[in-house]
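anyone seen this seq b4? input:
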Amino acid sequence: MASAQHPVDEGFPAAMPARPVVRALTEAASGVVGLDKDLDAFAEEEVEDAHQRNVEPCGAADRAAPGGPRGAWEDPGMLIERIAAVDWDAIPTPGLHLTPRADDTGPPERWLSDPVEPLRLLATARSRVQVATAVSGLEYSSVMHGHMSAVFPAAVTAARFLLEIAEQPDAFPPARASAIALLGEFLTMAPFHGFHRVEGTALCCAVADLLRTRRAFLRALDKSGRLLLQEADTHWRLEVTETLADGDGVLVFGALAGRFPAARVRAELQPGGAQHAASVEYQADGPAGEACLLLAGPAALPVGGVLRPAECGEREH
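predicted toks r here
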């Protein structure tokens, strides 16, 4: 495992405060992740809600289509096999170089374990103890470090499996709620420098892109699913379709996924990483559609290029 992990001189900073939407998301989830809500009541409410809405398990249409994503109707054993089949060791992961305490006889460098076992346990959990054990294992793995409020590149791969665990028609309700809450943490925790992108995209934005592919499922789920989408949509993505010089600036037209959170934004161009201050000319009313930004100053943006929030690429420990 050490071959893909690299020492990082890092202590244990105090946990970063959760953003309001994450607190609300967590409060809408389950007691396993530090909440007061009774899990049995949560389970009963979820079953009753599904019964009243008379909905079929979300994602069925996607999976009926040729080449559709796997997940909700897959045998749990196949899901576990695919989790184990990932070469987790090949995913870049920081090795935590800790300052040892006087009474600590362990090595100063600690390598984070892979998430196979906690993901397997969460996928098959049928008790609150199993869910709590799985969540604890994930919080101190190559996916994330809960005490440090840190997220690592493996979280992008783990996010796909957490979504599939949540989509299982017979998922244990606290396991589903915890999977959703963990996905919310992936969107808000900070990565380490040098481990903050996957294929050029900030970790939080890569997770947000994935969540948007499950919009129908998350919207139909419950309040926690809708709050998760609300957070994901702040990690917007604008694919450039046309540009037009406008005085000293450039109008950029494109297809927007998510929502611009304010009238002015800082945008990062991918590929390349160039940053631009921009004002929002317009955006669709919904979470996707046509949009236009006015970039301050001259800029060369290729058709097909992608603009994302610049602050996402800057977020790091």
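DSSP finds twelve helices and 13 strands in the chain. The first strand starts at residue 5 and ends at 9. kinda curious what u guys think
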